[in-house]
Every structure is written in C-alpha cells, then in structure tokens.
Design a protein that fits this description.
The chain is 39% helix and 24% strand. By secondary structure, the protein is an alpha+beta fold. The strands form five sheets. It has a seven-stranded mixed beta sheet with strand order 10-6-11-16-15-17-18. The chain has three domains: 124 residues, Arc Repressor Mutant, subunit A, CATH 1.10.10; 73 residues, no CATH class; 211 residues. It has 16 helices and 18 strands.
Length: 441
C-alpha cells in the first residue's frame, strides 16, 4: 500500500505566481514531463508547457488558440464540432493528478487545471494522509499479476509436457513421429529459426467514482494503448473512466496447445523463440518461421495474411466462418452452453509460405475446444495423414500450402470428438495481393 497525501480538492485555488517563481514553475513542468506520466504523445507535454507560459504571462488562452498553436489544427478548426481540445485538457488534468499520486508527496502546493478553464493554477495540499493505492501502483501490481499469469500459463504448459513425457513412455516417440511428417517439413527441415506467436488480448481498467479500478474490460476494437487513446477521443463520455494498464491475457486452451506443439518443434533441434501477438513486428515475420497458437479472434496483424488465399472468410463474428464456395456457415456455440452441456466449436489449421524463406503455420480455434483439438490433430501422425488424403494431393507444394477446419464437440471447454469438415489448397498467389474486405467489421 502507498500512502497518498490528500489532494485537498476543497482548498481554494491560488494564483500560480503567488507560490511559484518563474524558474520554479518551469522546473516543475520539466520534472512532470521527464517523469513519463504524460505518456508518449507529445501533445500533452506541449500543452502543459503552453499553459505554463500563458499562466506566467497572465494570459488565459481560448480553445481555438490551443487547437491551432498546440494541436496543429487549421485556422478553420470548429470548436463546436470537435471536442479534441476539451478531451486533451481533461486527460492532462487527470495526468497531473496521477503525477502527484506518484511524485512530490511532500510539496506544499500542486499545480492544477481548474475545471472549465484553460489555465494553470495552484492548490495547497493538506497534510491528512489516506491509505490508497495510486493508479500507477495499481498498474504496477496488475502488471505483476499479469506477469505471474503468463508465467503460470507457461509453467502449466511445461508441466503438461513433463506429465506427458513421464506418464506416457511413448509420448516422445509420438512427437518425433509427428515431427517427421511432411506437413512439418517446411518449418523443421532448414536452418531458419522458429518464432512461436501466442494470441493475447489487450485489456484495460474501468474506474469507479472513487477513482479506483472497478473491473477489467476487453473490447474487440481496442487492441493496444493507441486504440484506447483513440477511443477516448472519439467517444469521450463512454471512455472517460478507462485507464491503460498495459495488460493482456491469453486463452486457457493455449497452454494445452503449447504443450502439444513445443515437443514437435523441439524435435527439429532449432532455435525456438516466443512472443505475444501484441509484440509481433513485420521484421519478425520476415526473419522467422511463424507458428501461431491462439484464437482466430487473436490473429490481429496476421488476420489478412491468414484469409488472403483462404477459401474461408470471417462471418458475422469471430465465432463464425463462411465457406466461400458453398456459402455454408460454420458457427461456434461454445460461448453459450451451461456447465455440463455439450457444444459445437471449430478448430482451424493452415500452413503456407509468406516469403521465399519463411513459412506460416496457424494452430487456432474459435474457442478453447477448437484450439485444443487443432493442436492435438497436428501432433498426431494419423490425423496428419487424413488431412493429406482429404486434400487428394500429396505433392510437396500442396502439403506446404493448405488449410483445414475441424468441427469439434466439447463439454466444459474440453474437446471430446471432432470431424474434418473442410480441407483445401491455400492460394499462395493471393498472400500479398490487396485483401478483400471481410464481412466482419
């Protein structure tokens, strides 16, 4: 717990020049900027410096002046139609509050932006201490919890691998047999390193009336800190109480899939690295074979590539795929059943070259059951043989460029039975073509 000095919001405002000299105020603004509390956007530091200069000169700038002089808007900026200045001021006000929650607890005065004004003022801080966790400490604790969660997932995967090896003497042989199947040749039979990409999801916090984090929020259209900042500007009233926590999570089925696939990749004796989808770069795709493990909804940067030459398209949600040729929909209901009830899910596999040197392998599902079955299928030589038979083409080119869809029956997130409902050659000529728009937006 961190002791936080009461902000003294009930204390009267004081003229900035009554308590700070010019030198002191400029030094304070630079300390705030250097702390990193204002974030990556240069607009906040520029806005703070501009307001400080205006306060020192006794000027109270108009909204249009802030838009033009600080935010680089045009002279035709319409303050009645665009609320970006007000949003920036509101966010800067909160960032100043956050600064004093983390730094300079013993300062006699704090600088504030009075509500409804575009100026800097001073407010005396009281000496009453209250025990409260600051936003930054909450973020730090949540980052720690997030790290522990990821560590737990990977430890679970390692335990699953260990239990598989120790409890079943033939499991290592099974992995080796699967690794020798032609389907895996494209990533195991050369010197190119392998990068395991885990599909993760960005989450952020929602604050209650007391300014504490009340719950965690996940939205499909918000996949990064930048996305959250954009939403705060486009839908201010809705996102006013959202806080970036720099957190993400992964599905439970990823641990099972990781335990199935890692022994196969290790059989090649190659360098294997791992990263989160949120950290994947274009250079990674160019310099490594990519093996993706996660939900279809977690593909993000790899989404267009996955469906570019595919005979499938996303349907009305990430829980639905459309067969372009037959117009048949494959829809998961894994998110609907109650405990103990059976449900239908879908697992997706595809493999294709993304360059002359690198290969992409997708091991995915709409939900946990589909993901787990796909990993299980890719680690079983008989199922791999069935995939090649279903394609009716066992050439090296076909085995290195095809996709498949499994219909999976599950109970309580576990896969119990499955059928292969779709298998087709992947059209590699479309990988770098202009992608067609998906039905799902």
């Amino acid at each position: 717990m961190q002791a936080k000095i009461d902000s003294g919001d009930n204390q009267p405002l004081v003229g900035i020049k009554e308590v700070f000299t010019t030198k002191e105020l400029l030094a304070l603004s630079q300390r705030i900027i250097a702390s990193g509390i204002l974030g990556r956007s240069k607009h906040y530091s520029s806005l703070l410096e501009y307001l400080v200069q205006c306060s020192l000169s006794g000027k109270s700038p108009k909204e249009i002046e802030l838009a033009v002089d600080v935010l680089n808007r045009g002279d035709d900026f319409d303050v009645s139609a665009d609320s970006s200045v007000r949003v920036y001021i509101h966010q800067l006000r909160k960032k100043l509050d956050s600064y004093y929650q983390s730094y300079e607890h013993d300062s006699a005065y704090r600088i504030v932006i009075p509500k409804g004004q575009y100026t800097i003022a001073a407010r005396q801080r009281t000496s009453n201490s209250v025990t409260e966790i600051s936003h930054d400490e909450q973020k730090s604790n949540l980052r720690l919890n997030n790290g522990l969660l990821l560590a737990t997932i990977f430890l679970l995967a390692i335990n699953l691998i260990y239990m598989t090896i120790t409890s079943r003497g033939s499991s290592v042989e099974i992995s080796q047999v699967a690794a020798e199947h032609p389907v895996w040749d494209s990533v195991l039979k050369d010197d190119m390193p392998i990068l395991l990409v885990m599909g993760d999801y960005y989450i952020f916090g929602e604050l209650n009336d007391n300014g504490n984090i009340a719950r965690m929020v996940r939205e499909f259209n918000v996949n990064s800190s930048l996305d959250l900042e954009k939403m705060q500007f486009s839908d201010f009233e809705r996102a006013e109480n959202y806080l970036d926590l720099d957190l993400s999570y992964m599905p439970e089925g990823s641990a099972f899939a990781l335990a199935r696939i890692v022994p196969i990749l290790q059989s090649g004796g190659k360098t294997i690295n791992i990263t989160m989808m949120s950290d994947l770069t274009t250079a990674d795709i160019r310099e490594n074979h990519i093996v993706y493990i996660g939900y279809i909804s977690g593909l993000e940067k790899l989404n267009d590539m996955t469906f570019s030459g595919s005979g499938l398209r996303l349907g009305r949600s990430y829980d639905e795929l459309l067969n372009i040729q037959t117009q048949e929909y494959y829809t998961s209901d894994a998110g609907l059943p109650e405990e103990g009830q059976s449900f239908k899910d879908y697992g997706m596999f595809s493999t294709f070259p993304v360059s002359t040197e690198t290969q992409f392998v997708l091991i995915s599902g709409m939900r946990d059951a589909g993901l787990m079955h796909t990993a299980q299928a890719l680690s079983d030589s008989e199922t791999l043989n069935d995939l090649v038979v279903a394609m009716d083409n066992d050439t090296d080119e076909a085995v290195a460029s095809f996709e498949a869809l499994f219909e999976v029956v599950g109970i309580d997130r576990m896969n119990f039975d499955a059928n292969l409902v779709y298998a087709a050659i992947f059209d590699t000529n479309q990988i770098w073509a202009t992608p067609e728009p998906n039905q799902f937006n």
